[in-house]
Amino acid sequence: MAKTKKIYFALLGFGKLGTGFYRVWQQKRESIKEETGFDLELKYILVKNINLKRKGDFDSSLLTDRFEDIAEDKNLKIAVDAIGGIEPTFSIVKHLMAKKIHLVSANRSMLASKMLELIKLANTQGLYVMPEPSLGGGVPIISALQRDLVANRIQSIIGILSGTSNYIISEMTKNNISLRDVLKYPAIQKMGESISIIDYEGTDAAQKVAILAAAAFGIKVDFLHLHAEGISDITPFDVTSARQFGYEFKLLAIIKNHEDKLEIRVHPTLIPINHPLTLVHGEYNAYFIETDLLGSYMLSGRGVGIEATSSIILRDIVAIADSLWKSARKDHYQISASTKTIMPMEEIHTSSYIRFPCLDKPGVIGEITTIFGYHDINIASAHAQVDPNSSDEIGYVHILVDRALEHDINSALKDVEQLNLLRGKIKYFRIL
Predict the structure, then answer these.
(1) What local confidence, expressed as pLDDT, does residue 218 receive?
(2) pTM of the full predicted structure?
(3) What distance lies between CA 150 and its chain's CA centroid?
(4) Closest C-alpha to 104, from 323, 327, 328
(5) What pLDDT digit, counting tens, does each position of 171-214 carry?
(6) pLDDT grade, residue 391 (50/70/90)?
(7) Which whole number is the average pLDDT over 37-66?
(8) Cα–Cα distance between 400 and 132 in angstroms, integer?
(9) How many CB atoms lie within 10 A of CB 327?
């Protein structure tokens, strides 16, 4: 084997992800050295409170509460951001990059709003920024887009980006139970760095798709400005109704590449049961990519978990080390700027499933479909169903709509809401 090359790096943050990565690094250090010739030596662990009592077996001499210690170390080449949040992390990272330290980041919040600023700084300093660990799993989607598919024009990326949400939907579908019931599962608490409402209300997936859009298309995206819906409104009856018409629910992040705009959105979506994405269950993520040369291309793997994220972090450290050892960093980072804007949700065309709880009386379907026809919306099929559990003559009208403008559908729904026949909330889900 060739002579071992020492690579020094720092770990920023020592919470759940930081401590989990530390454990994986200890386990894999020797095998990585044998495999690659790089000895990855952790030199600092940046923490907020150095005197805090911490559990577990670790080298306490690595702890520091001064990022200046890291910045001034001439031998240190790489920093791994496992802190989370935008500030003070962004300021710390900028300071380290100004000192010629490369960045591997698992920080979704920061990258989802500051990605292109970091790339510009990286280009100025001749550094690498590796954002893939921030997507929260072990699927190498960004490297696939930038390397394996470099000759392709990416036409669309349809992704299951939240392993937690996918697990919840899978359990709801399999066991015919509510989201509230699934959240009581002990397995939920063990999945990621933490479990919070952002995991199933769409924010988690919106942050990830903003990072993905920046990496794939070079545009500046603030995840707060993206259309994002979560899964909390899905009921067991919704799941049953979807299955009745040949569909299954998934929380999807969708990017479509138009001539002058990008379509980016996150929402629960009905997928035909024969689509490859319906095979992705539990805490797994997947990316279904349409290209001009390869056609359809799909990647799938674990979407949550410390081990999955640590796998990508260690890969990125080795990739930077390999690049630095063999050749200088090229002048411009892979992500190039684009002038494309994000398409407003109202301009998007989509098929959809709509359910109306209403009085069970003659002519109800006709009244609803007449309004949709007035808005030039083509209805693929309409079905009436009596609610056997209701004593108040309540039924449901299920409508499947062909591709239509989101603006027109919203206008039609507002008109239907004015009819004196609704007896509950209209349920509206888009179809892939």
Answers:
(1) 80
(2) 0.85
(3) 22
(4) 323
(5) 999 999 998 899 888 877 666 544 455 566 788 899 999 989 98
(6) low
(7) 92
(8) 37
(9) 8
The packing angle between helices 364-374 and 406-417, to 10°, is: 140
As given in the structure block, the two tokens for residue 98 are 């100004």
In the numeric block, the tokens 């006709």 are attached to 366
Task: Compute the chain's Rg from CA coordinates.
Answer: 24
Q: Which of 57, 128, 138, 80 is nearest to 303 (CA)?
A: 138
Place of tokens 């306490």: 60
Residue found by looking up tokens 């309409």 in the block: 382
pLDDT digits (tens, 9 = 90+) for 218-268: 887 888 889 999 999 999 999 999 999 999 999 999 999 998 899 999 999
Beta-carbon count within 10 A of 182 CB: 19
For residue 361, how many other CB atoms are within 10 A of its CB?
A: 10
Calculate the alpha carbon distances from 71 to 9, 45, 87, 93 in Å: 11, 13, 18, 10
